[in-house]
Structures are given as structure tokens and as C-alpha cells.
Amino acid sequence: MNVIETNGITKSFGKQQVLKGISFSVKKGEIFTLLGENGAGKSTLINILTTLSKPSGGFAKVFDHDLQQDPDQIRHLISLNSQSITLDDEFTGYQNLRLIAKLLGITNIKGRIDSVSTSLNLTEFINNKVSTYSGGMKRRLDIAASLSADTDLLFLDEPSTGVDPKNRLEIWKIIKELRDQGKTIFLTTQYLDEADRLSDRIAFIHDGKISLIGTPQQLKQQAHHRQQIMVPQASIKLASQALAAKGINFNIHEQAIELDEANLQLALKTLLTADIMINETTPIDLTLEEVFLNATTEDPEE
């Protein structure tokens, strides 16, 4: 079941087109991560999907409700944790959560606050003024406020930006626990390690367009098909000469000959013809950082 479906979403501000035909779907119960640089369009897309902004073109559905025809229905089914922390520093953590619960019409307010504050490890500080909280504690309290409605779909817009490593790991743990509870998480981030560690699927957004989409492992495999051929160290020079004579592009890294997958069969035939022993051939696994750089590099012909 798809919780979110988009087709050709565009968004322009005056003459500037920020989103240029965004199409993807988000499955129920997954952590779907939108990964991109600052200014790539991540927050603009989240604002559209959470009904805070209207698209210029295209259409989208959330829980099978049309984004433009049923915005009120959608708002009852989602929660949003935005980049900007929306807390009152003069209130205690408890008072902030109590205000949100009242606005949401929650009946068992104390029970809900106890539940979300426990799950985010806030009970020790819940009665302190928010002005005394660290940045990481404020972010966790802000996420707790977003969880007060207990919806099945949660939008997290760069939730770990600006927090220290300890709180960042704590937020990662919380996100995984929410997924394990059956909730769907739509996450945006500019941190490659965060996307790699948390995501069931990742979409790269660049210049207002989705450039790649898939699981972390699929992205590493599909983005750049490279192979390495392992030969004995004593044969490296001869192998290089044989491949160069055939006009095959390659790189040498210790005992490995690295080349494009399209050239693999010709390279193997060339090496065997030259009586060079081949120890093994294996695909090269790229890091998510390398995949991201490949996906966001401008095509000079565009």
C-alpha cells in the first residue's frame, strides 16, 4: 500500500521554478528519505505534501486523499516536525506538550504526555523550562510534540540538524522505533550517513528533480557500474599494456584493475589471450557519498 503518491509535482515562485516534475511513491511502514543539498527543494516539497503550500502543477495523494481537494482530511492523518523548533521557551516541557494536546483535542492529556516524554527520554527534564534545555533536548521535545497526535505518517524535516552527536544517535534510535511501531516516516536530510543508516528507500533531489531513487544498496549498485579484476602483482605491468593496446579505459589500484562494466568482457578476453592469470572479478561498491556526488553533478551538455 502506498501512503503517498506524487506525479509531476511542480512549484514556482514567480519566474523561479523550484520543483520540476517530482514523481514518486512512499510505502506504508517505511522510512523514506529525501536527500539533497540546501536549496534543492526538500522543504518546499514537504510543505506541499503537508498542505502548507499548493503545487503549481501535477498532483499528489496522501492516504488516497487528493492533496488539493481534501487538505483538511489529510491534516488529520499526518504530523509534521519542521526545521524550525516551535516551542515556547518560557513554558516547561510539560506545558508545551499540554498546549499541543489541548489544541489537538486529546482527552487523556496526561497519559499522552507521559507516553511521548518517556519514549523520547524527556521525563527527567519535562518540568523544567525549555529555556534551560540544550539544542538536542529541544529537538527531542519538538519531536515529542509532533508525536502527540499519534498519526500513522510523520514528516521529519532535517530533525538532527544542529544537534550534538549523542542526541543525533538518540534521534536516530527514536526514528527506527517509530518505524518498528508501524508508522511511516518521510525524512529529509543533508547528511549522507543518516540517510544510509536509517532509510528503507532514498530519493536524491537535485535542482528540483529526483535524480535517483531506491534502497541504499540499490543506489550504490545502479549509480555507477564499475568492476575490478584482480591479477597477480607481477602481472600488473603486462596487464596494463595489454588493456591499453585494446583502447580500454581502466585504473590500477594495487592488484586491482578497475574499469566500467561495459568493458569487462573485452578486458577478460584480452587478459586471458595474454596468458595473465585472473584471480577474481568483483563489482565495486560505492559509498553513498560517491553515489550522491554522481547523481548531483551537473551534466555539462545540459
Specify the oligomeric state. single chain
How far is the N terminus from the C terminus? 37 Å
Unreliable spans: none
Strand order of the largest sheet: 6-7-8-3-9-10
What's the gyration radius in Å? 25 Å
Instruction: State the CATH topology of the largest domain.
Output: Rossmann fold
Biggest sheet, open or closed, and with what strands and sense?
6 strands, mixed
Individual helix count: 11
In brief, what are we looking at here?
The protein is of the alpha/beta class and 302 residues long. 35% of the residues lie in helices and 27% in strands.
Question: If you had to describe this structure to a student in words, what would you say it looks like?
Answer:
It is a single chain. The protein starts with a strand and ends in a 7-residue tail after the last helix. The chain folds into two domains: 2-221, Rossmann fold (3-Layer(aba) Sandwich), CATH 3.40.50.300; 226-285, Alpha-Beta Plaits (2-Layer Sandwich), CATH 3.30.70.100. Helix 4 (109-119) crosses helix 5 (135-147). It is built from eleven helices and 14 strands. It is α/β, with parallel strands linked by helices. 35% of the residues are buried. Helices cover 35% and strands 27% of the residues. The strands form three sheets. It has a six-stranded mixed β-sheet, with helices on both faces. A four-stranded antiparallel β-sheet has the order 2-1-4-5. The model has no long low-confidence stretch (mean pLDDT 90). This is Aunorubicin resistance ABC superfamily ATP binding cassette transporter efflux permease. InterPro entries: AAA+_ATPase, ABC_transporter-like_ATP-bd, ABC_transporter-like_CS, ABC_transporter_ATP-binding, P-loop_NTPase. One of its GO terms (molecular function) is ATP hydrolysis activity. Belongs to the ABC transporter superfamily.
